[in-house]
Amino acid sequence: PLVGRTAEGLRLRAAARAGGFDLIVTHLPYVAAWMSDLVGDDAGGARRLAFAFNFTDVPGGAQAVRMKRSFARIDRFTVFSTLERDLYARRFDIAPEKIDLALWGANPPIEAPDPRAIAEPYVVALGGEARDYATFAEAARLSPQTTFVAITRPWSLEGVTLPPNLRHFVNLPWAQAWSLVHHAEIAVVPLRDDLAPNGMVTFVGGMHLGKAQIVTRSAGLADYAIDGETALIVPPREPASLHAALERLLSDPALAAKIGARAQAFAAERCSEAATIAYFKDFLDRTFPD
C-alpha cells in the first residue's frame, strides 16, 4: 500500500506542477500533511483543501511542529465542529478564517434494518474513537435488570470488567451493527472527556435513525447534541449520571420519542449528504467565482 500510495502521489505531484489541477482535495489530516510535503510549494497554481480535518489524538511536540509546516501550504480546511476549528487554529498556527465548519453529513446508515437479533429491550453503544467504555460498563452494573450492548473494536474494552448484563460484539458488519442500534431502546455515545473531537459519525447515524441518545458532555459534539432537544447530555466519567439519564428515558417513552424525532429532523436538515454537497458547491463558488 505504501509503494502504491507513493507512486500515485508522485503522479499527482507531476500533474499538479504541470498545471493539471485547479483544486487538490485531501481527506483526513495525516493525508493532508503527507500530500502537502510530497507536492511541496509548487502545486502549479492549484488550490488545496484539507477536508475532514479531524484528529482522534491531536499531535504535539516535534510532530506538531512538522505538521505546522505542512499545513502552511494548504489554502483551506474543513472541520466538523467548532471545537476543532478553535483547537487546530491554535495548535498549528492556522488562521481561523481559513477553517470552514461543515457539520458531518451522511445519509442514514441503513435503509432498512436486519431482523431483530436480541429479543429483550436493550441499551447500545457503538464506536471506537475516544470512547469511555469503563463508564458504560459501570452504568450497566448499576442497572442489572437491563441488557447493555457494546459494539466496538477489539481493543476498546481492554482493562474493562464486564458485568453479566453487558453483551460485547467486535468488528460486526456495518448493516448488522447499525441494525442493533436501530432496534435498541436507547443509544449511548460515551466519550473519554469533555474535549474529545469525536463521536460525530455515531451520533449523527443515531440521529438519522431517530434514536433517543445519551452523550458525554463534549465540546466536540456541542454543535450537534442539544440537551433535552436532540440528546441527553451527561458529565464525563460519571456512571451514576449516565445511569440516571438512562432511567429517565427508559421510564419516559414519550420523552425518548420526542428527542429521537427532533434529532432526526436536525440530521435531515443539517447532517445529510445533501448538506455536504451544498457545502462543496458554496466552497467552489467562493474559491472560483469566475
Report what the structure shows.
- The protein has two domains: 2-101, no CATH class; 122-270, Rossmann fold (3-Layer(aba) Sandwich), CATH 3.40.50.
- Helices cover 42% and strands 15% of the residues.
- The protein contains ten helices and ten strands.
- The strands form two sheets. The chain has a six-stranded parallel sheet with strand order 7-6-5-8-9-10, sandwiched between helices.
- α4 links the parallel β3 (76-79) and β4 (99-101).
- The radius of gyration is 21 Å and the shape is elongated.
- The two termini are 39 Å apart.
- The mean pLDDT is 95.
The total domain count is 2
The mean pLDDT is 95
Assigned CATH architecture of the largest domain: 3-Layer(aba) Sandwich
Largest sheet: 6 strands, parallel
- In spatial order, strands of the major sheet run 7-6-5-8-9-10
Task: Give the helices and strands as they follow along the chain.
Answer: HEHEHEHEEHEEHEHEEHHH
Number of helices: 10
Number of E strands:
10
Distance between the amino and carboxyl termini: 39 Å
- Structural class based on helices, strands and sheet pairing: alpha/beta
Please compute the radius of gyration using only Cα atoms.
21 Å
Strand content: 15-25%
CATH class of the largest domain: Alpha Beta
Report helical residue fraction: 40-55%
CATH superfamily of the largest domain: Glycogen Phosphorylase B
